[in-house]
Design goal:
The protein has helices spanning 118-133, 155-169, 184-191, 205-216, 221-224, 239-245, 253-262, 292-298, 309-321, 338-351, 380-385; strands spanning 11-14, 20-26, 29-34, 66-72, 76-81, 90-100, 103-113, 141-146, 173-178, 198-203, 229-233, 271-275, 280-284, 328-331, 392-396, 424-427. 33% of the residues are buried. The chain is elongated. Strand 5 and strand 6 form a beta hairpin. The protein starts with 10 loop residues before the first strand and ends in a 31-residue tail after the last strand. Strands 1-2-3-4 form a four-stranded antiparallel beta sheet, covered by helices on one side. The protein is an alpha+beta fold. Residues 137-277 form the DAGKc domain. One of its GO terms (cellular component) is cytoplasm. GO terms for molecular function: lipid kinase activity; phosphotransferase activity, alcohol group as acceptor. Residues 47-56 have a biased composition (Low complexity).
Length: 458
């Protein structure tokens, strides 16, 4: 086959049906083509969808090749050339995640390379792997924590049939451990050796919460919290996956696996919550809540078989029962005019670069993104479950630079906040929520926050 008929990144191969083929990498799209009898490659039209992996339904005309595979290079998991004796054919393996719409699956293709093309194939494999990972470390060491009763109780099955095959196809080393009791993941995170590139959790947000609190409780917490924690959406609540992967892809397990395999680190803020009077410290992420927002989660644990629908049921049940809880909140108000706050927020968005929503976690490394991460958070459910009688005081974790101690040492000890007269106090009365008169809309004359009663969500 003449090299003049092939592009600079094309490798001739023998397909599974003993027909001649071509491996092509163009515009970050990897294609496997079946050549016609004359062996020529003519320009072919681009794939109808960059996420497709379907045999071409068009009949070959003249020298037009048949497209057997087409996928974005970022979805490639691994390309490898098997060892063999000199002068013999070598097997070339391609593993990738294939997506069409909301359907994703693992694809593995095996082809043969003629002895004369082996040197070029070795260079091609190296170039393709560099293009697929673009600075991310391949073949990662992964600690995979699985909550077998997470979600509808299908976490173990999803991990065995979907997650593990993808991680193994990518050449990752996986240490799989199943949790057996509440806070088991926290115990594991607190005791493990820091030898993993990634800690992955197959469950909902609760397992992430346990891992973060386990890492934060270590004597080397600052170093431990630099280990990326990556969720796999197999639980009832997968809010962190929504933030990382977006509202359209958050529940696609293969996409979450790609994030484990080649994702880039993103910093996340954590909130330090001190429970009084026990002085118990917990770390919160995403949100801290009380009242109804906790009851619809913890109060529906026995309804896990319902999946996400249990939260809707818990919410409606809470509205009907109108359960009342006494609540006192003290806060130091930095800004009180909500109109001015919204204006400043919009102005800040226009003048700063976002490193959160909208950034593809498996995109090439962004050198502008900070590499230090020191924040973690806790779910609304766990705050109530671990709470004690008394008040809940919350503060923000110092970001590492402004705290005393070794950079890889423990986190600073919690300090109870001491409210003074400048702090605002909001206290419920246990009665029904007062209805504001028409025109008041719950705001003061200058858009100031005002006291409320019957608080059910903060």
């Amino acid at each position: 086959m003449s090299r003049s008929l092939m592009g600079p990144q094309d490798i001739p191969v023998i397909l599974h049906n003993d027909k001649r083929g071509l491996l092509v990498l163009e515009d970050d799209i990897l294609q496997v083509l079946q050549l016609s009898r004359d062996g020529n490659r003519q320009p072919s039209s681009p794939p109808s969808s960059s996420f497709s992996c379907l045999p071409s339904t068009r009949k070959a005309h003249g020298s037009a090749p048949k497209r057997l595979l087409s996928c974005p290079i970022r979805y490639l998991l691994r390309a490898s050339l098997a060892k063999g004796e000199q002068g013999t054919r070598r097997r070339l393996d391609l593993s990738s995640v294939i997506r069409k719409g909301r359907t994703c699956h693992l694809s593995q293709i095996h082809v043969l390379v003629e002895p004369i093309n082996v040197p070029e194939a070795e260079e091609w494999v190296e170039a393709v792997m560099l293009a697929a990972y673009r600075g991310a470390k391949p073949f990662r060491e992964i600690l995979l924590l699985v909550n077998p009763i997470g979600g509808k109780g299908k976490s173990e099955s999803i991990v065995r049939h979907t997650v593990l095959p993808i991680l193994q196809a990518a050449g990752c080393t996986v240490d799989l451990r199943e949790t057996t009791h509440r806070l088991h993941a926290e115990e594991i995170a607190q005791q493990i050796n820091l030898e993993y590139d990634v800690i992955a959790t197959a469950s909902g947000d609760g397992l992430v919460y346990e891992v973060l609190n386990g890492l934060a409780a270590r004597s080397d917490a600052r170093k431990a919290l630099k280990t990326p924690v990556v969720p796999i959406p197999t639980g009832s609540a997968n809010a962190l996956c929504v933030n990382l992967l977006g509202p359209e892809d958050y529940d696609l397990v293969p996409i979450a696996c790609l994030n484990i395999i080649k994702g880039q680190p993103l910093p996340m803020d954590l909130c330090s919550v001190l429970l009084l009077p026990s002085m118990t410290r917990r770390w919160s992420f995403l949100a801290t809540a009380m009242g109804l927002m906790v009851d619809l989660d913890i109060g529906t644990e026995h309804l896990r078989w319902m999946g996400n629908s249990r939260f809707i049921y818990g919410y409606l049940r809470g509205l009907i029962s109108q359960k009342k809880l006494s609540c006192r909140i003290r806060m130091k108000i930095v800004a009180s005019d909500k109109v001015e706050m919204a204006r400043e927020a919009r102005q800040k968005v226009r003048s700063t670069q976002s490193i959160g929503g909208g950034i593809d976690p498996i995109s090439p490394t962004n050198n502008d993104i900070p590499s230090k991460t020191t924040s973690k958070e806790m779910s609304s459910a766990t705050l109530s479950e671990n709470g004690v009688n008394g008040e809940v005081m919350s503060g923000t974790l110092m970001n590492g630079e402004d705290a005393d101690g070794d950079e890889d040492g423990s986190l600073p000890a919690p300090i109870e906040l001491k409210p003074d007269e400048s702090w605002k106090t909001i206290e419920s009365t246990g009665t029904h929520l007062k209805t504001h008169k028409k025109g008041q809309n719950g705001k003061g004359a200058n858009n100031d926050w005002v006291d409320g009663e019957g608080i059910i969500y903060v």
